[in-house]
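Q: What would this chain look like folded?
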Amino acid sequence: MKKISVLGCGRWGSFIAWYLCGLGFPVTMWGPENGQSFRILQETGKNEYVALDKRIHLTSDLEKALSEAEIVIIAISAQGLRAFMQEVTRFPVADKTFVLCMKGIESDTGKRLSEIMTESGISPDRIAVWVGPGHIQAFVQGIPNCMLIDSQNEALKKELASAFKSNLIRFYYGNDLIGTEIGAAAKNVMGIAAGILDGGGFTSLKGPLMARGAREVAKLIHAMGGSPFSAYGLAHLGDYETTLFSPYSHNRGYGELLVQGKKFGKLAEGVPTAKAMRMLGRLYNVELPITEAVYSACYEADPFSDGEARSNLLRIILKLFERETKSEF
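A: My prediction, written as structure tokens:
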């Protein structure tokens, strides 16, 4: 079996290392020496999600992690990818396969994560993305789900989907890298909107949010050159249950606490993604009302000041349901 290094030892990084080790792959997991997630794993051998198999080699030596791997899986914050790749490409990595197990769009540029990898000097034929529904808390209980691997390299995505499959995760391979990446990132924006509805007591409106959210994302994907049908696949609509309804969803939790004037202490990728999607909507002349509302809620409202501000934040989302009557499609 090919040697794998997982770069990133947070929530998804630790799960992926645990999962692939369980399939029999030789796994190295890297994290920054001073990082809290790395220190917890180093000291205790576990975190709140998984207990590490003793066969997993935990290291803070990036050069060693890269040199030992044939497949490099990256699971870090999407907004940190460009700077991180500057560190990675200081070492010889031209012969490595890179798999991005992360969802986001660069907030300052609107670039997809695979585009950042290419701009960092990695061949597009050596880049794949691993996305789709599923929460770690469910996976470690043995509850199965389906996920998606996509790449512009047909042989690579089929090889990875076959190698990584198990009774716990059934993999499909995608055929629209633009749609896969935009859809996977955009579902986090919809998750924030769902959380605001939950926190404000309007949970029943999440049904219309699901339908209109997928339609909004489909239009953006199509304008960017992808297939609008990708919005209705595993990467976007297929991930709605785990994003819009699950108590484990970071983005839904962020929105729920936001409307209550409370701060969310963990990463919510939907916040910078809303900024990036707003930029892309204007660049491609696509109307994105839900994205615009989430952007306003995250960047323009001030829910931590007083009750009136929190009411205004909820009204930003509810205003979506006051728009003029129009044909659904």
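The beta strands are 4-7, 27-30, 57-59, 71-74, 97-100, 127-131, 145-150, 169-173.
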